[in-house]
Amino acid sequence: MDKIFDTIVIGAGQSGLACGYYLRKAKLKFLLLDKQSEPGGAWLHAWDSLTLFSPADYSSLPGWPMPKTEQKFPLRLQVVDYLMKYEQHYQLPIQRGVEVTHILKDNGIFHIHTSKGIFQAKTVISATGTWGNPYIPNIKGIDKFSGIQLHSAHYKSPDNFKGLKTLVVGEGNSGAQIVAEVSKVTEVKWSTKKEPQFLPDDVDGYYLFNVASARYRAEKEGRPFDASAYNLGNIVMVPPVKEARERGVLTSSGSFTELYDQGVIWENGQQEQFDTIIWCTGFGYDTKHLRTVVTLDERGSTETIESKSTTTDGLWLVGYGNWTGYASGTLIGLNRSTKQTVQEIEFFLNS
Ligand code: FAD
Q1: How many angstroms separate the alpha carbon of residue 58 from the centre of ligand 1?
Q2: Which InterPro entries match (predicted)?
Q3: pTM for the full model?
Q4: Which of 82, 117, 284, 331 has the smallest C-beta neighbourhood within 10 Å, fewest atoms?
């Protein structure tokens, strides 16, 4: 493998594909590597009923719009289908089934070590998302619990929970959506540290994108961001969540301090038995393949200015969330972030 690419993108989920669009436009010599054998990134693994927060009109990658769907919010498999067709449409060069294990840099060239050999490139974009790094807090007694525990990353459908008293932990969208559907088949309690913050019914993910954009503009212009002008809830009232609220199941039972073999001990000291705990407690960043070129903190993040590494020349990180560009964790937000990233790469290669 003596070919040296201008850029290698690690990960061909939505973030990697958006980078591919701009790299192709810039006529750079590039390649995307992905460890999965099929297109779709994290959307391949999410639970069966997951939908986008935003209508198709507001969920497009650069260039080729997501087709309109019959229902307001596109379904998970419609997103997978869109991503598959997007990479075919732009004939993006992707090698699948290639896992990047680590990277070394020598004389200005990155040596990307993978399960299929070593690739070389002048620049690297890491776009590996968060799904591979689910986070579960290390709460006292967690090892003592004898029931079933799983993270939302591995939750597929309510079918396996029938008759099992279930505790769902976490106040975000995953928690609300999983409470909504598991509570249809069994008794569920919802544990949250803070009171869940619901957005108004007529607000969708596009609103969150606009809030993130306003914050971004304010910071760029050195102005304070007036958060009071916005309703900063975070739970989008997609139809199943609205329906669950109407059934009265979306109320928090508060938080617990520790687990015991049969369940949890609530803050007031009372014990409660559960058969299953579903942790909807978020993700770190799946960046372990970068540990040989940058310092990573315990969540997997590293120092960047927007998407550009501040410590390793020639390295960019895309799609991991606000620290790599505001709203860059969403389909629509990737446009701005990946366009800027590829402009920076062109500048770097030409200087
Ligand atoms: P991923 O989709 O995770 O893709 C990363 C790719 O990198 C994968 O294909 C993986 O195989 C590959 N990879 C990882 N490590 C390696 C390695 N070492 N070597 C080679 N390949 C590797 N987003 C929206 O835009 N709109 C929404 O409405 C929305 N709703 C959501 C609702 C919920 C409840 C949740 C949990 C998420 C939602 N998201 C939404 C977020 C979205 O699912 C993720 O942010 C998105 O999948 C991230 O894309 P990505 O390309 O950065 O990462």
Answers
A1: 17
A2: Auxin_biosynth/cation_transpt, FAD/NAD-bd_sf
A3: 0.93
A4: 117
**Residue 240, ligand 1, Cβ within 6 A:** no
For 199, the token pair is 């957005």
DSSP codes of every residue in 194-235: S---BPPTT--HHHHHHHHHHHHHHHHTTPPP-GGGS----B
According to DSSP, the residues that pair with 104 across neighbouring strands are 111
Angle separating helix axes 173-182 and 239-247, nearest 10 degrees: 60
Domains and CATH numbers, the chain: 5-133+283-350 (3.50.50.60), 148-198+235-279 (3.50.50.60)
Position 170, amino acid: G
Residue 68: count other Cβ atoms within 10 Å of its Cβ. 10
Is the Cβ atom of 196 under 6 angstroms away from ligand 1? no
Q: Hey, which residues does 316 pair with through a beta bridge?
A: 125, 308
Beta-bridge partner residues of 31: 8
Pair of tokens at residue 119 = 């690739």
Q: Is the CB of 41 under 6 A from ligand 1?
A: yes
**Which two tokens mark 197?**
């913050």
Tokens standing for 217? Answer: 């503009």
* Nearest CA, atom 44, ligand 1: 329
Q: How far is the CA of 146 from the centre of ligand 1 (A)?
A: 31
pLDDT in tens, the chain (351 residues): 569 999 999 999 999 999 999 999 999 999 999 999 999 999 999 999 998 888 888 889 999 999 999 988 899 999 999 999 999 999 999 999 999 999 999 999 999 999 999 999 999 999 999 999 999 999 999 999 999 999 999 999 999 999 999 999 999 999 999 999 999 999 999 999 999 989 888 877 777 777 777 877 787 788 887 766 665 567 889 899 999 999 999 999 999 999 999 999 999 999 999 999 999 999 999 999 999 999 999 999 999 999 999 999 999 999 998 889 877 888 888 999 999 999 999 999 999
- Ligand 1 atom with the smallest distance to the CA of 17 is 51
Is residue 153 in contact with ligand 1, taking CB distance under 6 Å? no
Burial of residue 18, with CB atoms counted within 10 A of its CB: 0-12 exposed, 13-18 middle, 19 or more buried: buried
Please indicate whether residue 282, judged by its CB atom, sits closer than 6 Å to ligand 1. Answer: no
